[in-house]
Each structure stands twice: as C-alpha cells, then as structure tokens.
Amino acid sequence: TRQSMLKMYEPTAENQIKVRLALESIAKTENITVTREEIDEEINNIIEQSKLDKEKFLSLMTDREKLDIKSDIAVRKAMNIVLDSAVENKDLPDNNDSENNSETEQENNS
To answer: So what's the pLDDT on residue 86?
Structure first.
C-alpha cells in the first residue's frame, strides 16, 4: 500500500534531509559563494542533458528554480570541503578487516 511504501522510505528521506541541512550549514559557515558563471554553467548542463530548447527552458525557469540551483551548487561545494577534509582512520576496522583479523587471530591461536 501507499502507506507502507511511505513508511519504508521514511528513514532514507529523513537521512537525506539531515545531510542536506548539515551541508547547507557548512556552506553558510564557510561563506561559500556561487558565481553567476557557475549558475549559468549548471543551467547549460541541465539544458544539454534534457535536450530542451535553451530559450524556451530559460523562459520557463522561475527565480525560485535559479535559487535552488545556486543552493545545490553551494551544497556540492560544501560536500567537497567535507570530503577533502576527511581522513582515513586506520584504527577502525572495516567489515572485511574484522573477518580477516578473526581468521588471523584463530590461526595464531592454533
């Protein structure tokens, strides 16, 4: 049913909203700016991908949609800051390492 489908996707949607809000906060804190050229480039990419007539597309685009594009670019830049700042923590085993370590420990204990 529709309700069960909504319930199933609710955690994913909530997570996406939280990530978006966090990235928007980072963009604001880091004073990330978006240039007119970046917005125009993004709009041109959308037009190219959608294969729509440029003039018609631009005439239908609202100011709100342009602000959304600007926000998306800022969020993408914030995400890049986070990714560039990320450091690998070698002290934390991933799932594969845990399995390999258990096997190694068993072999060493034999």
So the answer is: 84
| Sole residue written with tokens 């970046």 | 38
Q: What is the pLDDT of residues 34-54, one digit of tens each?
A: 999 999 999 999 999 988 899
- Residue 43 token pair: 């709009």
**pTM exceeds 0.85, yes or no:** no
Question: Using CA atoms, how far apart are residues 74 and 32, in angstroms rounded to an integer?
Answer: 6
> Which residue's structure tokens are 């700016």?
33
Residue for token pair 């068993």? 106
Residue 102 to residue 109: CA distance in whole angstroms: 10
Q: Taking the CB of residue 42, how many other CB atoms lie within 10 A of it?
A: 17
The backbone torsions φ and ψ at residue 93, rounded to the nearest 5 degrees and listed phi first, read: -75, 145
Proportion of the chain above pLDDT 70, given as a percent: 81
Q: Sort 78 into a burial class: Cβ within 10 Å, 0-12 / 13-18 / 19+.
A: buried
Radius of gyration of the chain (CA): 22
